[in-house]
Amino acid sequence: MASVAWTWIGIRASGVTAWGLLTAVVLWGILLRTRLLGHAASPTRLLDLHRWLGASALGFLALHMFLLLVDPYLPFSFGQILIPGLSSWEPLAVAFGICAFWLLIPVSIIGRLRPRMANSGAKLFQRSHWLAYAAWPMATAHYVLAGTDALTQWSIAILIAGTALLVMGLLARGFVPAPGPTRAAGSVVLR
Ligand code: HEM
Questions:
Q1: Measured between alpha carbons, how far is residue 115 from residues 53, 110, 121, 189, 191 in Å?
Q2: What secondary structure letter does DSSP report for 42?
Q3: Ligand 1 and 19: CB distance under 6 A
Q4: Which among 10, 16, 121, 177 is least surrounded, fewest beta carbons within 10 Å?
Q5: How many other C-beta atoms can be found within 10 angstroms of the C-beta atom of residue 55?
Q6: What is the pLDDT of residue 187?
Q7: Cα separation of 22 and 20, whole Å?
Q8: How far is CA 54 from the centre of its chain?
Q9: d(CA 184, CA 91)
């Protein structure tokens, strides 16, 4: 059996995991906003999980990008993993991934700084979250176009399940009114 570089397996595994976590982050954000789960999950717990999922998604994304730098088969330079269009391999597919990455950076930085910001920070934080919504279709286009395994049965099942959950969540977000304009739960202010 021909040997397969472990980095290549790692790139694919970390990519799919990052996509799954990103999908879960957006979904948890919607659950937090709509309180669809009612008393089954407290806002504080949902927020904790939302943050944890976000940090994990970024962690797997960092791993995905690091492995691309060290992969002996298709090595990427720093420039090629950070600047859309520089990759000689599937430039459009890779550019979608890079754009998704850059869209996630301000959301996470503003999220970290928010406790130190005054009231105006809440608006900025809320607006920055639209970037996370934009990152998801970019990451999905990247997955479908760049993935070696993207069109295998298990991958299509993951893509359909994640997309269906998000679509249902977004429909619920549109139809279920949010509980209040700015909601406080203890020290936690929810978007
Ligand atoms: C939110 C951002 C990102 C997500 C969720 C993501 C996710 C994924 C997924 C799911 C795959 C398909 C794995 C497979 O089934 O084969 C993949 C492949 C790939 N990604 Fe990303 N990615 C992201 C950002 C990036 C960035 C910034 C780069 C920088 C160059 C990149 C480069 C690649 C490459 C080259 C492949 C092809 C690997 C292969 O199958 O040979 N990705 N990514």
A1: 19, 9, 8, 10, 13
A2: -
A3: yes
A4: 177
A5: 14
A6: 42
A7: 5
A8: 7
A9: 44
**Which of the residue ranges 27-31, 113-117, 183-187 has the most confident prediction, judged by mean pLDDT?**
27-31
Q: CB of 32 within 8 A of CB of 169?
A: no
Is any atom of ligand 1 closer than 6 Å to the C-beta of 16? Answer: yes
DSSP structural state of residue 177: P
Does position 178 have pLDDT exceeding 70, yes or no?
Answer: no
- For residue 190, is pLDDT > 90? no
Chain-centre distance for alpha carbon 126: 16
Query: Which is the closest atom of ligand 1 to the Cα of 12?
Result: 13
How many CB atoms sit inside 10 A of residue 177's CB?
9
Predicted local distance difference test score (pLDDT) of residue 189 = 44
Do 186 and 44 touch, CB atoms closer than 8 A? Answer: yes
Instruction: In whole angstroms, give the CA distance from residue 140 to residue 151.
Output: 13
136 CB under 6 A from ligand 1?
no
Lookup: tokens for 13: 């595994």
Span 157-168, pLDDT tens digits? 999 999 999 999
